[in-house]
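If your schedule permits, I should be very grateful for your opinion on a structural question. I would ask you to consider whether the tokens describe a fold that such a sequence might reasonably adopt. Thank you for your consideration; the sequence and its tokens are set out here.
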Amino acid sequence: MHRRPGLSARLKLTLSYAGFLAVAGALLLAVVWMFLLRYVPDNSQGLLGISPNRYLLVRTFAPAAAVAMVFLLVFGLVGGWILAGRMLAPLTRITDAARMAGNGSLSHRIGMKGRRDEFRELADAFDSMLEQLESHVAEQQRFAANASHELRTPLAISQTLLDVARKDPTRDQRRLIERLRAVNTRAIDLTEALLLLSRSGRGNFTRESVDLSLIAEEAAETLLPLAERRRITLDVTGGAARTNGSAELLLLLRMVTNLVQNAIVHNLSADGTVTVHTEAHGDTSVLRVENTGRRLPPEQVPTLTEPFQRGTERVHTDEHAGVGLGLTIVHSVVRAHDGALDLVPRPAGGLVVTVRLPGTP
């Protein structure tokens, strides 16, 4: 890598070490002059006629002092260069790792050993950043691949249906149109979900005070016909729970709607229950959605918020099958509002989803 003209950090440190050593030597000589030679008599007989005078001492001391100063300067330059190189060696490793990361290699780690000094902390922080960045890039790549696959599926089905209709004009046109409409609706829903996920992930929206209890009632009223068709009892309980959110983008409404719809769809085949509860707990607003259903293995729960993860009982022919982004959108909206999302399986079957958001008076 080409460096702009100028002194390197190693050379600056070397000159600093040598200059400091030279100044320290000069000060030492000044102290000797001030507190020793100044008290030597300056006459031809010296002290009591038996010791050298100041003139002789200066002539004897000055050459030795000059040699000592030159030695200190050379020693400071050489020693400073070596010490600066040893001190900056960890920084060179960090620079090499940063350059490799800039070229696209995120798997490299510095792995610095030794005492935990400032360079070790910087290297560990850089390794942690690389690990998170690599995980984020891998997640984005998987998401892009899955999204492409999900978008390709309805388009491929539409193409197949159109090819069949073109080859067989006598085929039932009404049934064909209904199937095309269902496939097209699914593609639109997926596209809108992706756009919503993108908007909620940025978090740069205007916030205002909203009540989660009112949002829960609105979502429950919208999904009540679906619950009745599936013979699911839907209850909304609790009190006011205010938080700061975007009323214009309807992110919190989408979050609650996704949670309630998931709770209805992933439930018992009949006589199931869904309970939506809101409350204000200190400076936190809490939304809890609990439903009955099949038992979930504990190891499956962390994967429910991953993109395009669907329950095993949900099929693509279901009217409310969704696009596999329901809980992913919920997770993204919660993070955008500086909240926390907890998923806990019920021992008797079903799931308890708790959303905690910062409350407002």
Summary: Confidence is low (pLDDT under 50) at residues 312-320. The beta strands are 208-211, 232-238, 242-245, 272-281, 284-291, 340-345, 351-358.
